[in-house]
């Protein structure tokens, strides 16, 4: 493995990657030519905020599997281009949670006790004690918008100050809020009742401009606002107006829409504290970010575990261990069906039944699609990261259905139906004993067969002598049968009544032998179709 660390990282970060046998780490100071040249044979790229990992750069990185961003924002990475290339983009949210929470509380205390002005007047030789009368945080209501890792760290510290905590986050479980003594309220109620308001959400279409003229108008007069999240959460003109009118008693801003901040109306307002995006800038936080990212990159390259990905839902190590056999099975099932659709593929329907339906299924879905495309033109560029995006580019619709509970039988089943211009084909599979992928049905016919190795899928008329003829022909070509599964049509469906299916797992002595054996099978009058499927061990 080759990892390019395009910007400076801590020694501890580098050590995690360097200790892996056979891994080569190219640090920023060792990049002799251009970064593009260095990425030609790289498996991973680690950046901070300076390097622009844009579409043009990624064109020079055919082997790249993962881009790691040491920090939260990924504005310097073209995630859409990375997804098209099948590259995971990871960041490190939460590694600096304590640092951001501590600055948030520090800014609140600074506003409550006018610490910056006290320091300035003292340095100017002025003993201005009377005008520096402050207020306590104790008993005040703190409204927290966003109860992720940072928001909860703020809550824990604010609780020690004796503050009353309320929060708004539609994506947090009530039990988590209760455990941290935070009362969940609507966003309007939070605005109306907060003495202090702190923002800890990402930038989305829903959160952009959250603090605006209308929201400020319903806030408690004299509210104090802290923003250590994203500058775009606040409409600057509205906040300036609120600060001037006294509707907003004070603000502490660490982030801004345009950075660095220049020619800002905030400069002339005495009731605003400004800092240059330093919330996460502590020695401890930067070390934690680097170590976390190195472990994420290592675990993805070694184990396939996707953590904190911005272009794919993430799995914890424990979640990955549970779902990994189904991801592998899903790709094999997709590959098994890849050439079975009778016409141009239009729609892929994926159904999850049982335990797998309750978990994160995005990687299972993508594995199915990657398996279907594996033998197509350009199939080598389709993987479990970009599969859904490529399907969309090709105009193929993806439909997913989930049913968590079953009345009995196999615990978790995956069913895939390929809808084409001239007909459909389907198959279902499961994983037995945690490691063994098994085919359960094919075109509506129950047929249990191993979903690995070299398989011959045969459709035949349900008449005597076919099974014997198949065995004879394979034996004549020195091909050993490892498993022979049979199923027959008993109801109306894609396979007419009177037809049967056989899935034969074989040991292939040579490609030539397999080719001649298949040609001989196709000549048998009772056999309607024969397919060879290579699924690997």
Number of helices: 17
Percent of residues in helices: 25-40%
Q: Which architecture of the largest domain does the CATH hierarchy give at level 2?
A: 3-Layer(aba) Sandwich
Tell me the fraction of residues in β-strands, as a range: 15-25%
CATH fold-type name of the largest domain: Rossmann fold
C-alpha end-to-end distance? 23 Å
**Rg measurement, Å:** 30 Å
Strand order of the largest sheet: 8-7-6-9-10-11-12
Overall outline:
elongated
Summed over residues and divided by their number, the pLDDT gives a mean of 90
InterPro entries: ACT-like_dom_sf (IPR045865), ACT_dom (IPR002912), ASB_dom_sf (IPR029009), D-2-hydroxyacid_DH (IPR050857), D-isomer_2_OHA_DH_cat_dom (IPR006139), D-isomer_DH_CS (IPR029753), D-isomer_DH_CS1 (IPR029752), D-isomer_DH_NAD-bd (IPR006140)
Domain ACT: 455-535
Protein name: D-3-phosphoglycerate dehydrogenase
Family: Belongs to the D-isomer specific 2-hydroxyacid dehydrogenase family.
Describe this structure in a few short sentences:
The chain has 537 residues and is of the alpha/beta class.
Descriptive notes:
With 537 residues, the chain is of the alpha/beta class. α1 runs parallel beside α12 (283-303) and α13 packs parallel to α14. It folds into four domains: 2-94 and 285-303, Rossmann fold (3-Layer(aba) Sandwich); 97-274, Rossmann fold (3-Layer(aba) Sandwich), CATH 3.40.50; 315-442, 60s Ribosomal Protein L30, Chain: A; 452-537, ACT domain (Alpha-Beta Plaits), CATH 3.30.70.260. The strands form four sheets. The protein has a seven-stranded parallel beta sheet, with helices on both faces. Strands 14-13-15-16-17-18 form a six-stranded mixed beta sheet. It has 17 helices and 22 strands.
